[in-house]
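Researcher: We plan to redesign the surface later, but first we want a full-length starting point. Tokens attached.
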């Protein structure tokens, strides 16, 4: 009887925990219950991997035990790195509306916006190897695809132009390697690097390749962010729309001459130098040389979004 009684108590306890977990995962955050959820006890759970996951419409072979474990790892790491996860949700709300239509225009699957997430965290990151911007474009690649890159202007920091370049690079990789999954891997390891490994190992699929740590995790990290960011409630992320970052509306000002002082230039639009640079990070110096009289478009925030001292 004692053993039977303990089993009953264990069953009741387990059932209670299951009910609490389901409630926590499904109870969508509202203004009324948000504070209550914040102070609830913190719990860590093993995750149930969905039966089917895909990248750009290409299925992930989760019936392979190696693939299953690698996918599980990235889902766990990114689910329980909560501060980073919340920042990704906040920034995505601001920058995905810029990225998504450019991907669509080029016929690049929407899933590639999550590649930008893992590359840079949706900030203008700087890598030790020399990559820059949200898409982490190397200098040679940027110049090959038409970006201006010098001490005065670096268009890798221009989100619209760098997204265009990323799309062109990915389309070329897809044509050369045969799948969007391999194109994504090539964004990390290069077209030559991926082609060489496919040939050396006599395989045709990313999931059959033995790769180094970074490229071996690369696609799984993208899919993990896609799954989590597409299903925040399922993975325990609680936020309201008003908690997310939003893009400040801007208009473009054409400039085809040199600008000797951007601080003075900014004041002409009732903003300061800091705000001008926030919206135009591709302007790398406090002036624009423009000896060639090239046409540039500078983003100016619409009136009323910033309060600056005169």
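Model: Full-length starting sequence:
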């Amino acid at each position: 009887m004692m053993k039977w009684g303990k089993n009953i108590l264990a069953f009741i306890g387990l059932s209670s925990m299951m009910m609490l977990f389901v409630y926590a995962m499904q109870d969508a955050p509202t203004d009324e219950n948000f504070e209550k959820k914040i102070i609830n006890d913190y719990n860590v759970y093993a995750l149930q991997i969905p039966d089917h996951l895909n990248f750009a419409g290409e299925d992930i072979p989760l019936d392979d035990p190696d693939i299953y474990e690698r996918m599980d790892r990235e889902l766990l790491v990114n689910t329980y790195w909560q501060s980073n996860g919340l920042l990704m949700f906040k920034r995505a709300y601001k920058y995905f509306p810029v990225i998504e239509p450019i991907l669509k225009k080029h016929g690049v699957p929407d899933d590639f916006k999550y590649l930008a997430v893992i590359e840079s965290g949706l900030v203008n990151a700087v890598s030790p190897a020399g990559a820059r911007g949200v898409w982490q474009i190397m200098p040679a690649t940027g110049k090959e695809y038409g970006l201006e890159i010098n001490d005065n202007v670096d268009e890798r920091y221009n989100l619209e132009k760098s997204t265009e370049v990323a799309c062109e690079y990915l389309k070329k990789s897809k044509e050369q390697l045969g799948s969007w999954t391999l194109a994504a891997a090539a964004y990390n390891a290069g077209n030559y690097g991926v082609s060489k490994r496919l040939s050396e190992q006599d395989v045709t699929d990313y999931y059959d390749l033995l790769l180094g740590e970074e490229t071996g995790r690369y696609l799984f990290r993208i899919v993990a962010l896609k799954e989590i960011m597409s299903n925040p409630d399922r993975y325990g992320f609680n936020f309201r729309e008003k908690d997310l970052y939003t893009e400040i509306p801007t208009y473009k000002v054409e400039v085809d001459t040199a600008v000797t002082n951007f601080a003075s230039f900014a004041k002409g639009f009732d903003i300061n130098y800091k705000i001008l640079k926030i919206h135009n990070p591709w302007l790398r110096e406090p002036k624009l040389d423009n000896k060639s009289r090239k046409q540039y478009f500078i983003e100016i925030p619409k009136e009323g979004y910033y309060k600056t001292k005169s």
